[in-house]
Design goal:
Blueprint (H helix, E strand, L loop, with lengths): L1 H9 L9 H7 L2 H29 L2 H23 L7 H40 L8 H15 L5 E2 L3 E2 L2 H21 L1
Antiparallel strand pairs: 1-2
């Protein structure tokens, strides 16, 4: 995904700044054909990335694994608090820390992956907004608007049933786990 945003950013044909030397190229058919070709390449790459993201986001296996890990993190809280009395001193810290850290790190990676996906597609959209399209012919401008409209849609990774896979949801999940652990600890 980075390569698409970098491709758009570094493309000299799409980001041509106006000066006297380039004025003759802008009105030429050759320049307009090159712009059309570059727009087609960007559109094909964006559609390919959307198809990969769709496979990832709508995969039943992915959702099942993430949902299972989230449920494991929630269900392990009562288990830890009920067996706390079996361990002495340093053992309790090691057991609780290892289980909580393992669950939080794995869950964090899935939420971080979803956030990275959203950020990368947002970066593609922002790079497309910065393209110098003023000197293109109407056909290229129409293609640009189609690509811009398509890239404006937010790509969201869902984990579990209806939980968005981004850092905001991860923080909500962490607050819920902390609140549950705090409640169970005070009940003891």
């Amino acid at each position: 995904v980075d390569s698409v945003a970098d491709y758009i950013k570094s493309n000299k044909t799409l980001n041509l700044e106006y000066n006297r030397n380039c004025a003759k190229y802008i009105s030429s058919e050759w320049y307009q054909l090159n712009v059309r070709y570059e727009l087609n390449v960007i559109y094909e790459r964006h559609i390919l990335l959307l198809s990969y993201a769709d496979v990832l986001c709508n995969s039943f296996i992915t959702r099942l694994v993430i949902c299972s890990l989230m449920c494991l993190g929630i269900s392990i809280l009562p288990l830890i608090t009920s067996f706390v009395s079996m361990f002495k001193g340093c053992e309790i810290i090691i057991v609780v820390a290892s289980v909580v850290i393992m669950t939080v790190v794995i869950t964090h990676e899935f939420f971080n992956m979803g956030q990275a996906l959203e950020d990368q597609f947002q970066m593609i959209y922002s790079e497309l907004l910065n393209v110098s399209w003023y000197y293109w012919n109407s056909r290229n401008k129409k293609s640009y608007i189609v690509i811009l409209t398509q890239s404006q849609k937010t790509v969201t990774f869902y984990s579990g049933f209806a939980t968005k896979g981004n850092m905001e949801s991860f923080l909500k999940y962490g607050r819920f786990l902390y609140g549950g652990l705090n409640f169970l600890y005070q009940m003891k």
